[in-house]
Structure formats: C-alpha cells, structure tokens
Design brief:
Rossmann fold; alpha/beta
C-alpha cells in the first residue's frame, strides 16, 4: 500500500554527477497539445476532462502539472473490437539519437507515480514516456476489456508498436518489474535495456483469489480503495502532517474513482496475476536494479537474489529510502538512471573505438 500513496514534497540537493541532471529544474513544461485524441479536451481547471473531479482537490504542484499532461491515445488490440483510449504522458518531442525511456508503475497505481522524477528525466534530455498499464491508471475501459497478464502484455506491445516504434529502456517499479520482465521475454525486440525499482518479481500471484466467489473479490477490492485504509497506510509509513498525507492519498487513489476500476482490478486478480519467477534467468538485456535500503515492502535479500539471477545486471541502493525511490528520492533515482544509460553509451563507444578498420588495396 505505501508504494501507491506516498510522495515527497521536497527535492534534496544532489551532487552533480552529470551536467544535464545538475541543471535540471523541477518544472514540467506545458504540452503543446490542448486536447486528447479522444476529443475530451480540458476542463476550466486545465485537467483532462476524463480525470475524476477529485483531481481538482489535489494541492501537490508536481502532481497537478503532470496530471494536466495526461492524454488518451487509441490502441488497437486483438481482444477488443474497438481501440482502447489509453492514458499516458507523452514526451514534448521525440528523438532518434537515443533510446526512449518508458516508465511503468506499480500495482494499482498510475503514471502520476512519476510526478517528481519524470520532469528530471525529461529536462536531462531523455525522451520519456509514462504509460498506464491496462486496467489501472486513467484509460477508457468502458467496454470492460480483459485485464489479465496476457492482455496487459498485448496492450503494451500495441502501444509500443503504434507510438514508440524503437527499442526502449523499460522501467518497472514494484509489480511493474514483473510486467517488464514478462514483456521483455515475449517481445525482446521492443526492449533495449531494463530498469527495476523495488522489484516485486518473486510473488506467485494471488492464487487464493482465483478460487474465491466474485463477490468476495469485489469486497476485497472495495477495501483496497477505501480512504481510511489508504490514509492509515500512508500515515504509518511517513512522518508527515495529516494535510500532506491526505493530499498523497488523493493522488494515489484518483484512478480508483473511475467507474471500471473495480471490474478491471478484480479481473486481473481472479486470473492469477503475475508469476515471472521462471522467466528471470531468461532475461538477456542489460539491467539496473534500484533498491531503497529501508524498503519495508520487498526484502533486500530479494534484491541480491535478483542481481544473482539476472545474467547482466548491476545493483544500486538508495540510502535512507523505502520502496519507491522515484517518489521518495527523485533526484537520486534520476541520477542512477542517467548514470546507467551513460555507462552503457560509454561502453558502446569504447567497443566501437577498439575496432580497427581493415583497409585493403583494390
């Protein structure tokens, strides 16, 4: 629960490991687009009209700025007769000289999870996309498409095929790491590198819920949505004022207010969820594993286990940080991402320089 609700109202000073990041300002530029492709447009307050009205009660400036950039784009899948209007934050401009970075989110969360780190990555020059996983976030699911693992995978693939079209650096926090592993194994051509944050990849999925009556599942999901439970979880996790905590709860549960949220979440859970334990050793991409040293959700032992099982991975810890470094320590998280990408570019440059061209006389 804390992984979905918490945030940080301050960004600590960061030693400048990279010039681009040291110049970054915590600011999100306004998108040139004033309306989403579905014609929903924006409300008088500047939020997309498909967001729940509760968005207007949010006071967190970073969340407000990112929320105003959320749009819906059509994604055609094989399991839906009509395109799914899928929510995301698109980069202000696309570039061809570096791989795009695609930011997923954790279980029952949304792209707003990236409200602090997204602008840092974007202003450091990355082509950054924040994408809502099918069944969560702010997509239009009025037709109630299936939201099981296979459907989530195909939806992400079709999104990539329609809009990104180049190998991407796929970032998966918490359960999003399982989404990223499952996707990279099935569509390796779409991924260049992987970044895992507080990776939840050793769970076997909610097997008990697959045998439960649906009304029991809906009751459990209703509790998951409840304001008191989310408020209590956030209050226990962080020593902040009640007003701050309430705002974080509003951000974390905003997507739960859409009319199809219960159906989509129950559909995912009763179908068994993610189980990628056997897929981990099959991952062939270079990986960064990022872990908060005070993570109370996922044991640090699992971080070391993941590091050992992935063929090509580096492990980096964020000090004095819990489960969600990209929310709790956004500057540190952005620094590690940029260093990982810069290291890979440097290695490729060294390899290219070490190859001596062979000249032959005709």
């Amino acid at each position: 629960m804390p992984m979905l609700l918490t945030s940080s109202s301050s960004l600590r000073a960061l030693p400048p490991p990279l010039a681009a990041l040291s110049r970054a300002r915590v600011r999100v530029a306004a998108s040139a687009a004033t309306s989403a492709p579905d014609g929903a447009g924006a409300t008088a307050s500047g939020f997309p009209s498909f967001l729940p009205r509760a968005a207007e009660r949010i006071r967190d400036g970073a969340a407000i700025r990112l929320a105003k950039r959320i749009e819906r784009v059509p994604v055609q899948t094989g399991f839906s007769g009509s395109p799914i209007l899928s929510s995301c934050v698109r980069p202000l401009k696309q570039q061809q000289d570096a791989d795009p970075i695609v930011l997923l989110h954790g279980f029952d969360s949304s792209c707003l999870e990236w409200r602090y780190t997204y602008p840092l990555l974007e202003e450091a020059g990355l082509e950054a996309w924040a994408v809502d996983i099918l069944g969560w976030g702010f997509s239009d699911l009025a037709t109630r498409p299936p939201c099981d693992v296979a459907s989530k995978r195909e939806h992400l693939y079709q999104f990539w095929k329609s809009y990104i079209k180049r190998p991407m650096v796929l970032v998966g926090p918490s359960l999003g790491a399982a989404v990223a592993i499952d996707f990279s194994i099935n569509h390796p051509e779409a991924v260049s590198k992987l970044i895992f944050i507080g990776a939840s990849v050793y769970s076997e999925g909610p097997k008990d819920m697959t045998r439960m009556p649906k009304f029991v599942s809906y009751a459990g999901v209703f509790i998951l949505k409840s304001l008191p439970l989310r408020f209590l979880a956030t209050r226990l996790a962080f020593n902040k004022t009640p007003n701050e905590v309430f705002d974080w709860v509003q951000i974390g549960r905003l997507h739960c207010l859409l009319p199809w949220w219960e159906d989509a979440t129950v559909d995912f859970m009763i179908r068994g969820g993610y189980n990628v334990i056997k897929q981990i050793k099959q991952v062939k991409h270079k990986c960064l594993i990022m872990w908060g040293e005070d993570d109370g959700i996922i044991s640090s032992k699992l971080a070391y286990r993941l590091h050992q099982e992935l063929p090509d991975a580096i492990l980096r810890q964020v000090r004095q940080c819990g489960h969600i470094p990209h929310v709790e320590k956004p500057r540190e998280a952005a620094k590690l991402v940029l260093e990982f990408l810069e290291r890979d570019r440097a290695e490729k440059a060294d390899q290219a320089a070490s190859v001596t061209p062979v000249l032959t006389n005709g």
